[in-house]
Specification:
- This protein is about 30% helix and about 20% strand.
- It has seven helices and eleven strands.
- The strands form two sheets. The protein has an eight-stranded parallel sheet with strand order 5-3-2-6-9-10-1-11, with helices on both faces. A three-stranded antiparallel sheet has the order 4-8-7, with helices on one face.
- Strand 2, helix 2 and strand 3 (about 60-65) form a beta-alpha-beta unit.
- Helix 1 packs across helix 2.
- The protein is globular, with a radius of gyration of 17 Å.
- The protein binds fructose -6-phosphate.
- Fructose -6-phosphate (F6R) binds near residues 38 and 67.
- Fructose -6-phosphate (F6R) binds near residues 67, 134 and 138.
Length: about 250
């Protein structure tokens, strides 16, 4: 696990955008795994600027998003479908048919989840997976638990995640309680992973992820077992790490 510490959120976002752009330049038909949430917004903004000013093209890129709320219409302003279209997809040349966001409104989640996983494999697997991290060290919506889930499935959100995500909704009651999420196994099958974290609120989760024991109670800790992971974090998120465990960029 390689940890890069950037001075602030802007520098973190620029570094992450360069990392993704490099992937797309080297392999224009890359399969990207994408995350939502506050953390990657700056990175998406930088990628849009690269599309507009530097000719980085997404026309042969395929994307798979990590997760989506269940029972929130995709037109809702808080759906991850809306988030991805507003922050990236509507602003670059990606083809709509190459976008894959889990559908939180299907009838049969078991069948749908299998199809979603199969589609990832059919596309050759994820070349580069982007992750954020929850205050409780969740990745995707894989909450702390007793086991690591292997593949896409329906998950119950924990109180702490519902509370954290209520900042986007009118009230805590409006936050969906369930989501469909790629599993820990789906994430670990990606060829490369980049995890972003910003702010003091993430410092403890980052500390446990980098230096702690690998256990399902700290979902992101499993990344210690992946052979190509970079953590790109700002100084606040790195504040509990020993200087020797990271490189400043
Ligand atoms: C979002 C996702 C989540 C977030 C995490 C951090 O697709 O999978 O794991 O990355 O909850 O969210 P923010 O960035 O809002 O702190």
């Amino acid at each position: 696990m390689k940890v890069y510490v950037c001075k602030n959120y802007e520098k973190m976002s620029a570094f992450a955008a360069n990392y993704l752009a490099a992937q797309v330049i080297i392999k224009p038909n890359s399969v990207l795994g994408l995350a939502t949430g506050s953390t990657p917004i700056g990175m998406y903004k930088e990628l849009v600027a690269k599309y507009q000013n530097e000719g980085i093209s997404f026309k042969n890129v395929t994307t798979f998003n990590l997760d989506e709320y269940i029972d929130l219409p995709k037109e809702n302003e808080n759906s991850y479908y809306t988030f991805m279209h507003e922050n990236l997809f509507d602003k670059v040349d990606i083809k709509e048919e190459n976008i894959n966001i889990p559908d939180g409104s299907v009838e049969n989640f078991e069948v749908y989840s299998k199809e979603f996983e199969n589609k990832i494999q059919k596309c050759g697997g994820i070349d580069l997976q982007v992750l954020g991290i929850g205050n409780n060290a969740h990745i995707g919506f894989n909450e702390p638990g007793d086991t690591f889930s292997n593949s896409t499935s329906v998950v119950e959100l924990t109180e702490s995640t519902i509370l954290a995500n209520s900042r986007f909704f009118e009230s805590e009651d409006e936050v969906p309680k369930k989501a469909i999420s790629m599993g820990i196994g789906s994430i670990m099958r990606a060829k490369k992973i980049i995890l972003l974290a910003s702010g003091k609120g993430k410092a403890e989760a980052i500390h446990k992820t980098v230096n702690g024991e690998v256990k399902p109670g700290v979902p992101a800790s499993i990344l210690q077992f992946h052979r190509d992971v970079v953590l790109v974090i700002d100084e606040d998120a790195a504040s509990l790490l020993e200087e020797s465990s990271y490189e400043r960029v």
